[in-house]
Amino acid sequence: MAKKSRYAEIADVLAAEIADQPAGARVSSEHEIAARFAVSRAAARAAVQELEGRLLVRRVRGAGTFVNRRIDYVLSQRKAPSMHQTVREAGGTPRTVVCDVRRVALRGELAARLEQPEGSEAHLLVRQSYIDGLLSGWAQEWIPLDLLPELDAAVHAVESLDSILRQMCGVSPVRAWCRVSYSLPTPEVAVGLESDHTRPVWLIESLSRDGDTGRPVMCSSTWSRPDSTRIIVELDGPWK
Amino acid sequence: MAKKSRYAEIADVLAAEIADQPAGARVSSEHEIAARFAVSRAAARAAVQELEGRLLVRRVRGAGTFVNRRIDYVLSQRKAPSMHQTVREAGGTPRTVVCDVRRVALRGELAARLEQPEGSEAHLLVRQSYIDGLLSGWAQEWIPLDLLPELDAAVHAVESLDSILRQMCGVSPVRAWCRVSYSLPTPEVAVGLESDHTRPVWLIESLSRDGDTGRPVMCSSTWSRPDSTRIIVELDGPWK
DNA sequence: GAGCATTTGTCCGTATGTATT
DNA sequence: CAATACATACGGACAAATGCT
């Protein structure tokens, strides 16, 4: 058996203790860990950084280190393209905060995907999403203007965009196309995620259509923190 | 504008220099960086670790730090379930090394997915995959026995399993189901990937069927190093 | 708002261990 | 075996963000 470094041993002990604690619980400070295991603060720090790398904790400068939990976020054609529902299915509590609602002109790929003329206007909704109170995602969502002229009032009354589209527009959104990748966020995205712009994050690009008519109803780009969600993409063929 | 830490500044300078260099090129050692920027080795080390976090370099103890490149590995129902072809489409050079070929009894989910009776035998092929000479993945692949009794000889003659199935079995494999996630590898997998078992890696589970008959022809679990591939999953609905 | 203690972030210098060449 | 390079570790210091008084 390979000999382990001291900080890795400490990390394993802490990881086992963390496993029994609820999300959000406070983890010992670096000073306390150093004193408890009789090591320097550098070694204690390395152990906590190890836990951060395993996505077991989140650290906040000046505040402390806290137990983290990821939820399984499953993307599939069989499932509704709804963040609120997907999170609830995984046992989490979703919440969204509107950052901005405005009208923008659709260009290029975005216009094509929504099947709107180049330069036509659409709603742009920018939101942060939280899971169990922790910041998880930052999303831009485009919706054709004629589908719902008064989006602003609606999104403040009902958090789930899927519900709004179903109840106010009479459509049944289904995920028609989706692309998931994992790369560095732009500085703007990093701000929205309160994340370092040098750490990779999930990018989920998605197009929803009305399940009955096939009409495009929503296009979105969602960036998601890897420490909040374990993204799972299920791709289904014509069989099964 | 936020003030940057010294190591982040150094990392940015090095990142810009690395961008012009070919994959595999040697990066200055920590000592050289410390001397060049007049900082301690700890700060130089932090800068190089930053680059490692951005997946721009790979570090080998005792050997040095080297420029890394990722390729886009695109998973989609429209594309053949072939590692060799997917890598070549992204501009890389694929290679596979057989670690083990043996017969195993199919159990549970695996048997169900291949539509074989519980406990029936199948080939198990264990391979490492390399991209441009760098270790990229470690895979277990299960193939029904009756499809190709002499798998052992075939995989040593032809590297691409997709080609073998097409040419020797007369099937046209298509990706019928696939699940992609990102989590910590088991110790066994970490060994196969020559990776730390405390760093998350990709897990791609896949089922291939014959495009003509719909018969299951291959089931696989592939673990892939995030520093070798940028996994992209495309999900297509009935419209498009 | 100001002040203070706590906590993580960064950095210095030094030393030793371990893997590769 | 020797030189090189990364890995771990010690102890100390100050900066920056947070939370409370």
Automatic annotation (TrEMBL), chains A, B:
Keyword DNA-binding attributed: yes
Keyword vocabulary terms for this entry: DNA-binding, Transcription, Transcription regulation
Protein's GO biological process: negative regulation of DNA-templated transcription
Entry-linked Pfam families: GntR, UTRA
A GO term for molecular function: DNA-binding transcription factor activity
Domain HTH gntR-type: 4-70
Keyword Transcription on entry: yes
Protein name listed in UniProt: GntR family phosphonate transport system transcriptional regulator
Source taxonomy: Bacteria, Bacillati, Actinomycetota, Actinomycetes, Kitasatosporales
